[in-house]
Amino acid sequence: MHTLLRRDLTVPLKIIYERSWLNENLVYEVYDRMKKEAVPLSLDRHVYFINFTSFGKQLPVYINLIRNPVDKVISRTFYKSKSRSNFYENCLTSNKSTNCNFKNGKPYDLSIPYFCGHHKQCMELNNDWALQTAKSNVEKYYTVVGVLEKLDDTIDVMERKIPYFFKGAKKIYGQEFFGISKNRYVPKVSDVIRQRLSESLAKELEFYDWIKARLLQP
């Protein structure tokens, strides 16, 4: 998403790398490093929600983008698997597999933790407290949460609500990036498998539908 930002922004992407969970010391380090950068400034990382005010720091403008959780899981597992042929059909029918047989209450790196925060319950699958906390944080702290399947609408909302950063983003997307991230091969799974995943990811789907409705509301 940072590719759609104004061209004069500083984007210090290497402050944190491949860390979703930050301890208290790292929170202070990230904040101090950000304060030393030139403004205007954006930081684009996969990090669980942090309420900087609880550390006595100024809250940034939060935005995010999520994807249909079933498609996200299928894509993630497919591209990490060594054997792509009938992977989900084999995986979901095997009790030995831990890669795709989701278990309620077990920790998973899905969408909700990125809005819920660093509490251990945030990663627990189908935890209602985590879902409600994520929704509450979105309402309180996120200016825009977009949806990948509604990217045009997402960019429109970002341009309208955060023009300082996203003015002209729709034009940039249309000219330079349209279609660039489309996978050449889309993993195919049966309707039965999709239904099973939908049932396993019930709270993730509820959160996704809520975010989509929020994005599209007048």
From TrEMBL:
It is a single-pass type II membrane protein. It is found in: Golgi apparatus membrane. Keywords: Glycoprotein, Golgi apparatus, Membrane, Signal-anchor, Transferase, Transmembrane, Transmembrane helix. GO terms for molecular function: sulfotransferase activity. One of its GO terms (cellular component) is Golgi membrane. The keyword Glycoprotein applies. This is Heparan sulfate 2-O-sulfotransferase.
